[in-house]
Each structure stands twice: as C-alpha cells, then as structure tokens.
Amino acid sequence: MRMLAAALFSICLFAVAGQASTEGAKTMSKPEDVSAVAPALEGYAQKFVQGDLWKRPGLSPRDRSIVTVTALIARDQTVELPYYLGLSLDNGVKPSEISEIITHLAFYTGWANAIDAIPAAKEVFKSRDIGADQLPAASGPQLPLDEAAEKQRATRVAEQFGQITPSLVQYTSDVLFRDLWLRPALAPRDRSLVTVSALIATGQVAQITYHLNRAMDNGLTREEAGEVLGHLAFYAGWPNAFSAAPVIKDVIEKRPH
Q1: Which of 119, 12, 122, 104 is nearest to 66 (CA)?
Q2: Any idea what the Cα angle at residue 191 is, between residues 244 and 11, rounded to 5°?
Q3: Distance separating alpha carbons of residues 58 and 139, to the nearest angstrom
Q4: What distance in Å separates the CA atoms of residue 245 and residue 14, rounded to the nearest whole number?
Q5: C-alpha dihedral over 95, 99, 102, 107, to 10 degrees?
Q6: CB-count exposure of residue 234 (10 Å: 0-12, 13-18, 19+)
C-alpha cells in the first residue's frame, strides 16, 4: 500500500512539473504594493496580524506557522507559501515535518493541493541547503497502533458506509489510520493540529468533532484549540472560523475538565 501511494504521488508530481515550469510565477506582494492599492489592508496587517496575532501567548509561533502553512495549502493559496515556509523553519518546524505536513494534506485537502505546494517547498529547501537526508523516508518503522481504538473506529465506519462505499472504508483503514497516521516524522499532536486546521480552513465542519477530540487526546489544549480558531479567522476568513466555532465549543464543553 505504501509503495502504491508513493508511485501515485510520483506520477502526479511529474505530470505537473512541465506545467509549473511554464506558468508565470506569482510573487508575494510587498507592503508598499499593498499600501498603493489598499492602504487600510496594509494597516490591518501591520496592526493586527504582525503586531498582535502572531504574538499572542495561547499558541506558540511554531504552532501558528503549522496552522498557517496548513491553511495556505488546504486552500491552494501558494503565493505567500514560500514566505510562511521560511518562517516555519525559523520558528522551529523541521524540514521533515514540513514534508510530512504536505503529504498529510494530500489526503485531507486533495492530492492537487499538496502537489501545488511542492514548487514553493522545493525552492525554500534549496535556498536553505535542505537535502534528502533531512526528509522522511517513503516507508519505514511506524508509531504503535492503538488496536482497540482503531478496531472500534473501523467497525463503526464499516457499519455506516461499508455497503455503500467499501473502497472508501478500506482505504480509510489501510492508508490513513494504519499507515499515514503512524508515520513518525510528524508527532500525533501536530498531525491532529494539521488536520483540524485544514478542516476549519476548508469549511469541513462535519468532521471537526472527531478530529478535535482526537487532537485533544493527543495533547492539544483547550486554549490552543481556541487560538487556532482565532488565528484561522485571518488566514481562512471569518465565515469559516465562525462556522467551526459552535462545533469546537461543543467539543470543549463536553470533554472532562
């Protein structure tokens, strides 16, 4: 299964390589460019995003970097991705973790979005002399699986959807929960943070309950969950943040204190 996933990823990458090389590269707007068009926007950016949001203590700069990179990839917004990938490295996110975040998001936001992030990541890695020796292997030793919890999850999903879409049920077990989630290059808590952030950023509120509970089981705190929502209001829009807010509130209130 791992070999199949790797092969499919390689095929997709080669397929878009020519297209990426022929398209004009978009660059991140400079502050003076933003001011020339939308001075209020630049004012908000300076005062609230750079001057306040990234300095709030409820979520570390490293986590804010992970959340931001996740939102950009999930929403296929690659113009600012090189900047925020560089900032992520500066804030302590490892190259191996960035690689794993991109791979993880292929499954949770679509293959094409992950592929679209490759050119930006490649250039950032090149500029910082990050080689293959700093990236996770395609396969290898995995984290231990909670067999009881996975059996319970798989049984519930099979009962609900097994007769309708057996392929989805099979791939969910074999590829996601018995492979992807066990890859050690991204800690379970961070993998959950990426997943929850992607769900909020793309307006997929139906699965937030399960994954936020899983995230908190993996170590994400109540305060951090709330800060993720506030952070994503800027990077995914207020409607997505407020659509997720009731679900997150419900999860937090129902968990034991």
Answers
A1: 104
A2: 105
A3: 35
A4: 39
A5: -140
A6: middle
Count CB-CB contacts under 10 A for residue 41: 12
Cα distances from 80 to residues 19, 106, 175, 205, 228, in angstroms, run: 20, 19, 30, 25, 19
d(CA 116, CA 20): 9
- The residue among 223, 222, 26 whose CA lies nearest residue 123 is 26
**Segment 93-132, tens digit of pLDDT:** 999 999 999 999 999 999 999 999 999 999 999 999 999 9
Compute CA 218 distance to the chain's CA centroid, rounded to the nearest angstrom.
Answer: 16
For residues 209-228, one letter each, b for 16 or more C-beta atoms within 10 angstroms of the residue's C-beta and e for the rest, the string is eebbbbbbeeebeeebbbbb
Q: Are 199 and 236 in contact (CB under 8 A)?
A: no
CA distance 206 to 91: 31
CA-CA-CA-CA dihedral for 159, 254, 57, 75, to nearest 10: 30
Q: Structure pTM?
A: 0.90
Q: Which amino acid is at 30?
A: K
Residue 54 has pLDDT above 50, yes or no: yes
Rg (CA), the chain: 19
